[in-house]
Amino acid sequence: MKRVHYIILAVTITVIALGVVSALVIARIIDEEYTQKQTSIEGTGQKVEVPATTTTQPQLTYRCPLDDEATTVENGQRRPLAVMIENHPDARPQSGLIKACTVYETVAEGGVTRFMAIFLHNDIPAVGPVRSAREYFVDLAKQYDAIYSHCGGPATIYTVLKNLAIADLDEMANGDAYWRLKTRRAPHNLYSSTKNLWAKAVAKGYSSQVFFQKPNFKDDASLSERPAVASIDINFSRPDFAVHYEYDRQTNTYKRFMAGKAHMDGVYELQIAPKNVVVQFNPIGPIANDPKGRMKVSLAGMGKATVFQDGQVIQATWQRPALADLTRYYDQSGTEIRFNSGQTWIEIVDPSTMQVTYK
Fold this sequence. Notes:
Layout: H1 2-18, H2 20-38, E1 62-63, E2 70-71, H3 73-76, E3 81-86, E4 102-107, E5 113-119, H4 135-142, E6 147-150, H5 157-163, E7 167-170, E8 179-180, E9 190-191, H6 194-203, E10 217-218, E11 231-235, E12 242-248, E13 253-258, E14 261-262, E15 276-281, E16 284-286, E17 295-297, E18 301-309, E19 312-320, E20 328-330, E21 339-340, E22 344-349, E23 355-358
Parallel strand pairs: 3-6, 4-22, 6-7, 10-21, 15-22
Antiparallel strand pairs: 1-2, 3-5, 4-5, 8-9, 11-12, 11-23, 12-13, 13-14, 15-18, 16-17, 18-19, 19-20
């Protein structure tokens, strides 16, 4: 009853000051914040902490090694987190993707795409929905020596995690670092936070000081060098998972759309808009005799890629000598491509079954 009274009081005051429309908007925000604060981590009673506003500004004197954004030394020198995030239509909108340094997307079984978000300098109060591991995503996490967050996976995944010496935060064994939203149905309701995951990694004794190779960066092209119009379309499987990027010349970003709608972040209610988009071509196919139709992707070696930045298209190759090496991209002259500072999305596409068009 207290919750209802607080909302009614907030609406009443706002009606007087701002009018009915504004009041309804503020009431919705109050209700959502209340719900978020009351969400408990399953089995612990621990509350989700919503970051409080502060007038003290941190000293942003360091550059994040994964996206070159300004941050603090403390945040920029943490061990990366790699979080599996699902993309079933019932899992949308996802939470936290907009604050990742790098996001990978490719297909899982049934043509449903799945994301793996790499976090380093940003702290996110809710990340998810968290979903199960796949071997090729573990391969991708290895290049960052990342702490790997997921919820179970095929029986063979645990051998893969062990053989690659991955710092594993499987929800099955670390349930107190995760919670389930009551407003969504399982399995589309499992969440964590960067605070929970880094704290759990410390509790398990995982090293916070690791070595990983870093991308190289450059300054954005000047406004006069950017085209007025550019776009990318990726057809992974069916319309529910169709991806479209629309280039924004003023911000030098690629606004992301999915299934014909703006791809919004559930925490920040903003459209996802990376600074760089990479389409990496890899053979993708089903695992032989797998009853669930799981996929396999070979991610070491070399192949073709297309890199989109500054509204331009760069025909490229990708190279990754071993799984511990960072995948790097080279233009047709053999020069390594440097990314613009900011988020990068890497779309892993099968060249024989998936269509990519751009202008």
